[in-house]
Amino acid sequence: MKTKDNNNNAQRSTHNAQQQLFRLVIVGHVDHGKSTVVGRLLADTKSLPQGKLEAIEKQCRDNCKPFEYAFLIDALKDERSQGITIDSARVFFNTKKRKYLILDAPGHIEFLKNMVTGASHAESALLVIDAKEGVRENSKRHGFMLGMLGVKQIAVVVNKMDLVKYKKDVYDKIVKEYEKFLRQIGIKPYCFVPVSAIEGDNILHKSQNMPWYNKHTVVEILDLFKKEKSSIDLPLRMPVQDVYKFTKNNDDRRIIAGTVFSGSIKKGDNIVFSPSGKKTTVKKIESFPVSKLLMKIDAGYAGGITLDEQLYVKRGEVISKQDNPPKVTNRIRVSVFWLGKAPFVVQKHYVFKLAATKTKGVIESINKVIDASTLKSMKNKKEIQRHDVAECIINLEECIACDTINDSLELSRFVILDDHEISGGGIIREVLQDDKNIIDKKLFTRNIKWEKSFIPTEKRQKKYGQEAELIIFTGPKTKDKKTPAKELEQDLFNKGKIVYFLGIGNVLYGVDADIKGHENNKKEHIRRFAEVLHILLDAGMIVIVTATNLSKDDIEFIQKITGNFKTTVNYL
C-alpha cells in the first residue's frame, strides 16, 4: 500500500507542476522583434542556463557581429545568417509568481503554418508590432488566427519605441488602429504596452524614457493573466494512438494507448469508442515501467488501458465516458485558414487530420471567404486563396468523432493536407446531418445501445471449441453456391461445430419483406443481412452464407457491420 500511495502522490505532484506551467505564444510580423522580446525576458528574469548569455556574446565577438538578444533562442544555425526565425522554439522562463513555457511562433509569411502549431496550445499571447513600421497585414492575420484558435488573453507589445524616439503619438496611433481591427473580429486585448526590447524598456523594469506610460510592464502583464481552467474537469476525450498486443509468456493483453486530452480515465469506467460506438469497461490502467502502479490517467498524460473484453478498435477512435460521448458525423461547418500555394477548391479531395484520425474529404460549398487582413467578405466563391479565411461545409468520406469549438479546443481543431503537405487548418463550428452516411450513424447507435449478455463471445467460443467465423459463397447466378455451402455446413456439424447456413433469400423474404422489390434498396438489404449475421456471430457460431454477385465493396460493407469476426470468402 505504501508504494501505491507514494506513486499516486508523485503523479499528483507532477500533474500539479504541469498545471502551474503557463503556456504563452509570441507572434508578430517578420523583423518586428519577437525573438528580441523573448531573449530579453529570459535575460532580465535570470532564466538562462548558466553561461548561455556569455557564450552568445563571445560567439558574436568571434564572428564580428553585434550582440542581439534574439540569438538567445534562435535554435537553427542558418537562422542567424538569414535574420529570421523559421521554427517554433520552446523555451522556459520564471517570474516570482510562476513558470512559463514560451512558444516563439514565426512571423514570416512563409511560416504562418508553424505559427498555427505554436498558438494551438497557448493560454495567452503577446502580439508584437514594430513602432516604426506600424500595423502590417501579418499583424492582422496573426490577430485573426489567434482569435480563431481560441486564444482569448492577448496583450499587444508595441516594440522598438527607441526607433521613434519614444514618442507617445506614434504609440497612440498604433493602439487606435489595431484596437479598432481587433474589435471588428470580436477580440478585446488585455492591454497595449510600449517597449524597447533591445534597451529593456518596460520588459521587466519601468521605462525612464516613457514617463507618459504608467501602466504595467510585460512581466507584470503576464503575471496578471489567468490560468486556464484545468481540462481535467472537462468530459473525457482520449484519442487512440495505437494498440499493443502481447504474446510472450502467455501475455494476452491488448493495451489501448493514447494521451488524455481532457477529463480522466480509471479502472471500472464505462467507456465508449467513437465513431464505432463500441462500449466496454476499463479493466486496468497500464503504465511503463510495469512497477509503476497508477489508478487513473489525467488530462495531459499519456498511458494505456486494458478492457474487460477483447474489442477490435483502431487508431483514431476517441475514448469517452458512455454518458458524454463526442459527436459523430461526416459533415461539418468549419472556419478554415488556408496556407497552401495552390488554392483550396470545391470538390477536390484533401486529407483532413483531427487528433489521430485521418480521412479524405471535399469542400461541399463555400459560404463566404474573408480576407484576414482587410476583413472584406466575399460570397459565391469556388476556391479559397492563400492566407484567406473561409466558412465552408466539408463532407468527409468517413464519420469522425469530434466536438465543436464551443465544447472542446483539442477535438475541434484540424489540419488539411494537400499532396502530403499541411496546407491549412481550421476549427469545427457545427456538426451537420448527412443522409449519405446514415449507415455509419445507425451502426454507432446500434453499438452504443447494444445490451450485452453476461456471457461474452470469447467464453462462448471457448466452450464451443471454435472461433466464430463468417464463410461467404458468392459468384454469378449461374453458379451453384448453395450445394457446396450446405455440404460444408453438414461436414462441420458432423465434427461437433455450432454452425448455421443462411441464404440471403431467407432474409430478403423475411426481415426485408417491407422493402423487397425496391431496386434502390440494395445497400439496405445488405445492411439488414449483415445485422442478422452479426447477431449469430456474436453468439459464437460459424455462419455460412450464399449470395449472388457480391462485390468487394459489398463484402467490406458486411465486414464493417459484423465487426472483428473472421471472414472467409469463396468466389465461384
Describe the protein's architecture and organization.
With 572 residues, this protein is α+β, with helices and mostly antiparallel strands. It has four domains: 14-224, Rossmann fold (3-Layer(aba) Sandwich); 232-321, Elongation Factor Tu (Ef-tu), domain 3; 327-435, Translation factors (Elongation Factor Tu (Ef-tu), domain 3, Beta Barrel); 453-571, P-loop containing nucleotide triphosphate hydrolases (Rossmann fold, 3-Layer(aba) Sandwich). Helices cover 27% and strands 31% of the residues. The chain contains 14 helices and 27 strands. The protein has a six-stranded mixed sheet, sandwiched between helices. A six-stranded antiparallel beta barrel has the order 7-8-13-11-10-14. A hairpin with a 2-residue loop joins strand 22 and strand 23. Helix 13 (522-538) crosses helix 14. The longest helix is centred in the first third of the chain and has 19 residues, at 2-20. The radius of gyration is 30 Å and the shape is elongated. It starts with a helix and ends with a strand. The model is unreliable at 1-19, 75-88 and 108-112 (pLDDT under 50).
Strand content: 25-35%
Q: Give the class-level CATH name of the largest domain.
A: Alpha Beta
Please state the CA-atom Rg, rounded to the nearest Å. Answer: 30 Å
User: What is the number of strand segments?
Assistant: 27
